[in-house]
Write a structure and sequence with these properties.
Layout (H helix, E strand, L loop, with lengths): L4 H8 L3 H8 L7 H13 L6 H8 L4 E6 L4 H17 L3 E6 L7 H12 L3 E4 L7 H10 L3 E4 L9 E4 L2 H15 L4 E5 L9 H14 L9 E3 L4 H12 L7 E4 L2 H13 L9 E3 L5 H5 L6 E3 L2 H14 L10 E3 L3 E3 L10
Parallel strand pairs: 1-2, 1-3, 3-4, 4-5, 5-11, 6-7, 6-8, 8-9
Antiparallel strand pairs: 10-12
């Protein structure tokens, strides 16, 4: 006969009910007891029956994360942090790519939530700014956490960084190096997407603070993708007078700027300085490595998952807003302009 929950309880010196509470990630179990039960399960090589756990707890033990596949470099850190947090609480993270806006996002999320019986949902940009999705989850009474929301940010629980201040710091860095003609490459301004306005506004704040003008042709919008960064950089660098520096609203577009500059025979940072935002993996693997604003992506994912898991088993989650710190990371893509 295989190892049973009775064996685990005996090894850990606790009741069967306590073992069940640990397996179902229920609250009101002391950390020391939780670790003792987990150690007993590991010693005995006990693998609980997932189906039985779900039936017993009336929960799926699944947290859903919906994301746009084109933003993979940004999502990877968030997904890793959330997955680790879920694993530590004996939950699983179900990550679902959404080809937004090619599909009916609201209908897809509703279908997934109902079929998988998700215990909670993490919404990342652009879905975190889609109020229709927020309203859907409220109607379904499914707890959710929004990452970096800019539309009705106080609606529901959220984890965020100060995007505006990050753009200010990136722009101030370039101004301190001596740049005066600086362009901004933002995300899709008219969409429900992630933070183009706060990052643009931060850029404009820093330029105004320094008394530097920003002509209309120095602010341009892409789609948060590498290819759109290339395309927008071609527009900026093909002008009669080109900027000496570009502030990009994310690292993928900044990497696209590097590519466009190289195709034109421009050296970064000698001929052009470039900054990104996020400090996604691509920022440190491109050449030259990107100066960027680091937001703690793994911590963001872990914090979002922690908020959802803390709401179990009741599913009641207050509208808490948790802000995490950002940091300017100076690498090889910025330098003083040529004299």
């Amino acid at each position: 006969m295989g190892v049973t929950i009775h064996d685990v309880a005996a090894r850990a010196g606790v009741s069967i009910k306590t073992v069940s509470r640990v397996m179902n990630a229920e609250p009101n179990v002391r950390d020391a007891v939780r670790e003792r039960v987990r150690a007993a399960m590991a010693d005995l090589d006990y693998i609980p029956n997932a189906g039985a756990r779900r039936m017993a707890s009336a929960r799926s033990l699944l947290i859903g994360l919906f994301f746009h596949p084109r933003l993979a470099s940004y999502i990877t850190g968030i997904q890793l942090g959330a997955a680790r947090q879920c694993r530590d609480r004996d939950y699983m993270l179900a990550a679902e790519p959404i080809e937004w806006p090619a599909v009916d996002v609201v209908a897809l999320i509703e279908r997934t939530v109902r079929r998988a019986h998700l215990d909670g949902v993490i919404l990342v940009p652009p879905q975190s700014n889609d109020i229709e999705i927020v309203a859907l989850l409220e109607r379904l009474q499914v707890p959710f956490v929004r990452v970096s929301p800019t539309a009705e940010p106080d609606r529901g629980a959220s984890v965020f960084v100060d995007d505006r201040r990050g753009a200010v710091e990136a722009t101030r860095h370039l101004i301190a190096l001596g740049h005066r003609d600086i362009a901004f490459l933002g995300g899709p301004l008219a969409s429900k997407g992630s933070a183009p306005r706060p990052r643009r506004d931060g850029f404009l704040d820093a330029m105004a603070e320094a008394g530097l003008p920003v002509p209309d042709n120095r602010v341009i919008y892409g789609e948060f993708t590498f290819s759109s960064g290339q395309r927008c950089a071609d527009t900026l660098l093909g002008a009669r007078t080109r900027p000496t520096a570009i502030v990009a609203a994310n690292d993928a577009m900044a990497a696209g700027v590097l590519s466009a500059a190289a195709r034109r025979g421009l050296k970064v940072p000698d001929d052009l300085s470039v900054t990104g935002f996020d400090d996604a993996e691509i920022a440190s693997v491109v050449s030259p490595a990107l100066t960027t604003i680091r937001q703690p992506l793994e911590q963001i994912g872990a914090a979002a998952a922690d908020m959802l898991l803390a709401a179990q088993p009741s599913g009641k989650l207050d509208s808490v807003r948790r802000r995490l710190d950002i940091e300017l990371v100076v690498r090889e893509s910025t330098a003083p302009p040529r004299s």
